[in-house]
Amino acid sequence: MSYKNNASRALEIKTDQLSIINQFSSSLLQLDTLDELFEYVTTHVVNRLGFVDCVIYLADNNAYTLNQVASMGIAHARDKYQAERKVIRFSEGITGAVATTGKAVVIDDVTKDSRYIADERPAQSELCVPLIYKEQVLGVIDCEHPIKGYFTNAHLEILTTVAHLLSAKINQVNTVNNLQKTVEQLNNAQKLENSLLQIANLTYKANDLDTFFEALHSIINNLLRADNFFIALYDKKVDILDLVYIVEEGINTKTHQKISKEQLKDTASYYLLQTEQTLLLNKDAFQSHIDNGDFKMVGRQSESWLGVPFKTSDRISGVIVVQSYDKTLQYNEHDSALLTYVSRQISMAIDRQLARQELEHKALHDELTGLANRSLLIERIKHAILRLTRAKKSTSHALLYLDFDRFKSINDSLGHEVGDHFLIKICDLIKSTVRSTDTFARLGGDEFAIFMENITHKNQVNEALNRIKSALSKPLNVDSHLLQASTSIGIAYTDNINDKAYILLQQADAAMYEAKSTGRGQVKFFNNTMRKKLKTHADIENDLQHGIEHNEFELYFQPIFTITTSEVVGFEALVRWHHPKKGFVPPNDFIPIAETTGQIINLDLHLLDLAAQQISNWHQQGHRFLKVTVNVSSRHFASLDFVAQIHSIYNKYQLPLGSLCLEITESGLIENLELATQIIEGLSPLKVKLCLDDFGTGYSALGYLHQLPIHILKIDKSFIDHLQDSTNPLVEAILSLAQSLKLEVVAEGIETLEQLAILQSTACDYGQGFLKSKPVTAKEAILLINKPL
To answer: Which H helix or E strand runs over 10?
Structure first.
């Protein structure tokens, strides 16, 4: 009977165990997380086996430790039960031994096992089964009981089966979790890559910093929570931090905030700028910096604070900061790396913006004085004229055109550096007299303009003139030179929306030239007489090209003769314009206009061609070799094209070498003497000589003689006029200088026998003037070459 009862009991237990296993196997399909798994094993599986104490550990194979993940204890404390040791080394206790060997153990009396480590409730027996998947120990299920010999082979068998099923499920969950993490990481990486590309693209295309910052924040917010975010720029020169972009609680304030010098030193941002190190701080770390005196609390304290410094130039640096006031939102090293990348993009964007601003400033401002240039002045005049539609009827604008008196003389006698410093000082003085709404501009050289907007009474202009006069009244000490500044001023008004900026500039310019012609420091207002002159000027400008194209220009020739024998050695070619409507137009009426408009280049080339054609005709007619001097603008000496053009003329007419001589006036200043020298040397194979006209009337001549390969000097008529009874000391000095430099000398404007006689007693080589011949036509000129004049 006893046997039958035992067999029946064993069958009942076996059936119950199979039921547990079947139910566990079925439940595994519904369980998706490790926490759910471990809770099910401890509360539904092990508990049904009648165990009173069970702990599940997972292995950390890198640290060789077992970490408690679930437990089941005595009934009244079951929900809160935790084993005393939550972490066990592989080398510790029975549990550690099972994890090391990977073999299950059943111990009937743990007091006799030296490996046993007692918990807060010492046990008598222990069943410990490893969790193994593909020969790798994943963890351990450890069960203890207060009765010796409690655990049987049947318990070992079913717990081993449970451990096997649990190991497989643990591996499955880990695989799924790892796969999900991998997918999430790939998605995050793709999201990060796309965002970084967006930021880089935004940096390249950004034209406006405010728009750039707003778009940048939107991208950053997709990568990390940035509900509280700001970008600040620090200007070392003024020692002020400018919060150029601020978002608080997700709302953009759209206003710049400046932190004053007094507040700046107390901020975490300033500390960041000084240390030039990224700061990633939680609440405690932030407070620790405050306690150390690194900075003070400004505003409310954040739970997490991340700031990255950046540098754009030697003068400008900045910070980008995100703050969290949510305990659940803590920034990490990944966020720090992201923000560091963003800071570099901000730096690049600001660099590009500053570079663009600098280029725009250079394009619209004079490099020497920093004043507006002609382009910017014209734009402001245009806009001001358009605004007249909204202005009162009595409103007008005034343009003051200034030309500094004697500036060229100062520049030539004292050097360009002194001249530049002189200009800068004058500009600083005048700048202090103009209104904040006025535009002070440099138009070029020593010519400046002041555009006065919204003039309601002409006394406003008179007051401005008085302020300028007062500012320039005292001598200026410029590089140890005491110089007196004064300016000739022309003034023109505009009060009509149909007026043009360039015409206003022409009118003021014309008035300035009238002022300059009446003496130093004079002021002239544009009037009808000047308007007629401008009209004539415009007509001539329009007719010049037509005249070139229709052969309206003719060359007259004045003989150049030897002083001693009056033998003709060549001619100076002088232009005459036979206008079809105006008749004869004197050179003084159109040459300055051609020079101003740049038409002088085409006119000179046309006249050179006419001269070459005449030389060729004379040679074909069998006349002896003659040189012809042609006046050319100094503008030609600013381009190497002039060399090719002269060579082309020589080839076109097969001229004898040395037939053409080029004459420039001393007043026609050549800016680039080095380039001019290359041009003259480029003409040397043709034996073209350079003649300097009007020598002695200006201050550039000695500089020219020193730096340019000049061959001939012309003594100006004003010196020859004063030859009476004896030689003029200045003439003697010029001749002496020429002799020492081995230069030929031509005295021009000889009108009396007395002048010729005096020159014959000097070392002067050649002469020309009305005494011997006025300029004549080519037919008349050739008749003068066969006998002395």
So the answer is: helix 2-28
Distance between CA atoms of 443 and 333, rounded to whole angstroms? Answer: 57
Average pLDDT over every residue of 471-496: 90
State the pairing for strand pair 65-72/54-60: antiparallel
Is the pLDDT at 668 greater than 80? The verdict is no
Tell me which residue of 713, 709, 676, 720 sits closest to 692, measured CA to CA: 713
Residues in Cβ contact with 488 at an 8 Å cutoff, skipping those fewer than 6 apart: 402, 403, 405, 512, 515, 516, 520, 521, 522, 523
Residue bearing tokens 């717990």: 159
Question: Among 17-26, 216-225, 343-352, where is mean pLDDT lowest?
Answer: 17-26
Closest of 612, 608, 609, 687 to residue 654, by C-alpha: 612
Indicate the burial class of 637 (C-beta count within 10 angstroms; 0-12, 13-18, 19 or more): buried
Phi and psi torsions of 478, nearest 5°:
-120, 110
State the Cα–Cα distance between residues 326 and 328, nearest whole angstrom: 5
Find how far residue 594's CA is from the centre of its chain. Answer: 39
**In whole angstroms, what is the distance from residue 604 CA to residue 631 CA?**
8
Enumerate the β-bridge partners of residue 442.
448
State CA 86 to chain mean position distance. 62
Local confidence band at 373 (pLDDT 50, 70, 90 cut-offs): very high
Label the pairing between strands 660-665 and 689-695: parallel
Q: CB of 20 within 8 A of CB of 49?
A: yes
Nearest-angstrom CA–CA distance, 768 and 574: 13
How many other CB atoms are found less than 10 A from the CB of residue 175?
10
Compute the distance between CA of residue 719 and CA of residue 277 in angstroms, rounded to an integer: 76
- Mutual angle of helices 333-364 and 209-221, in 10-degree steps: 170
Residue 140 sits at φ, ψ, to 5 deg, of -145, 140
Closest CA to 29 of 38, 18, 37, 39: 37
Residue 783 pLDDT > 60, yes or no? yes
Instruction: Write down how long the chain is.
Output: 789
Whether 6 has a pLDDT exceeding 90, the answer reads no
Q: Identity (one letter) of the amino acid at 143?
A: C
| Paired strand residues for 319 | 232, 309
The amino acid present at 560, given as its one-letter code, is I
Between residues 277 and 411, which one has the greater pLDDT? 277
Any idea which of 58-72, 80-94, 226-240 has the lowest mean pLDDT?
80-94
Q: What is the pLDDT of residues 418-445, one digit of tens each?
A: 888 989 999 999 999 999 889 999 998 8
Q: Is 225 exposed, middle or buried (0-12, 13-18, 19+ CB in 10 A)?
A: middle
Contacts of 386 (CB under 8 A, 6+ apart): 497
Over residues 302-325, the pLDDT tens digits come to 899 999 998 888 788 888 898 989
> Is residue 74 over pLDDT 50?
no
Residue 119 DSSP class: -
Encoded tokens for 520 = 């130093």
What is the pLDDT confidence band of residue 756, given thresholds at 50, 70 and 90? very high
User: Tokens at residue 32, please?
Assistant: 């998706």
